[in-house]
Specification:
The protein is an alpha/beta fold and about 200 residues long. The chain has six helices and ten strands; from the N terminus they run E-H-E-E-H-E-H-H-E-E-H-E-H-E-E-E.
Length: about 200
C-alpha cells in the first residue's frame, strides 16, 4: 500500500531490468527513465495496476495516460493507424512524440488508460532503459510522469523519491534524463491533419 514502505531503488542494468519486469508483471509500479522525464510505469492491460498509478500520483481519473510501446507494430494492436499516423511514427519513433489515435475495440487495455475517451495516447520511447524494459515484458506500459500531480516532472531518481517514496514499488536508476521536458502530444485527425495538443 502507498506509504507503507520505502521505495526500492536499483541500477538499470540487466538485473535491475529483470527485477522491474517482475514487479510490473505482478501489477506493481516502477519509475523508469525515458529521454524526456522519468515515467511511472504499470502494465496497461491491468485495471488494478492502472488504478495504482492514479492513486500514487493523486491524479484525476478524467486525465488519460500515455501508453508506451516497443514500436509501430505493437501500437497497431491497440490503436487504428492510418497513413498519416504511420508516416509520423516512422519519422519520429522511437522518440519524444506521443500520438493520440482511435482506440481499437479489441485494444485489450484497462479502460482507465483512456479515461473514457475513444482515443488512446501512444508513444515508442527512445531511452535504452525504457526500451529494454518494454522488450522484457509482453504487455505495453502506461507511464505518465513519475511525480505527484502538481509537482514538477522528475528528471532524476532523487526527484522521483521526493514525491513518490513509499507510494511505488521501485525506481529504476538510469541516471538523469536528457531532455527534461515531456513529449510532444499530437492528435491525428481522420482527414490526415495533425493537431499539436502539447508541445514538447
Amino acid at each position: 500500500m502507498p506509504g507503507k514502505n520505502a521505495t526500492e531503488t536499483v541500477l538499470a542494468d540487466a538485473a535491475g531490468i529483470a527485477r522491474a519486469a517482475a514487479i510490473l508483471a505482478q501489477g506493481g509500479l516502477v519509475a523508469v527513465p525515458t529521454e524526456t522525464v522519468y515515467g511511472l510505469a504499470a502494465r496497461a492491460d491491468s485495471a488494478d495496476a492502472v488504478a495504482k498509478i492514479y492513486a500514487a500520483k493523486g491524479r484525476p481519473d478524467f486525465n488519460p495516460l500515455i501508453v508506451h510501446v516497443r514500436d509501430l507494430a505493437q501500437a497497431s494492436k491497440h490503436v487504428a493507424i492510418d497513413e498519416a499516423a504511420a508516416a509520423l511514427a516512422q519519422r519520429y519513433w522511437p522518440g519524444p512524440l506521443t500520438l493520440v489515435l482511435p482506440r481499437r475495440d479489441d485494444a485489450g487495455l484497462a479502460p482507465a488508460v483512456s479515461a473514457g475517451l475513444p482515443t488512446l495516447a501512444v508513444r515508442a520511447p527512445a531511452h535504452p532503459v525504457m526500451q529494454a524494459l518494454l522488450a522484457a515484458v509482453d504487455f505495453p506500459l502506461a507511464a505518465p510522469s513519475a511525480n505527484r500531480s502538481g509537482f514538477i516532472s522528475p528528471t532524476t531518481p532523487e526527484h522521483v523519491l521526493a514525491s513518490l517514496d513509499g507510494r511505488i514499488d521501485l525506481v529504476l536508476d538510469g541516471g538523469p534524463c536528457s531532455a527534461g521536458v515531456e513529449s510532444t502530444i499530437a492528435a491525428v485527425r481522420a482527414d490526415g491533419s495533425v493537431d499539436v495538443l502539447r508541445p514538447g
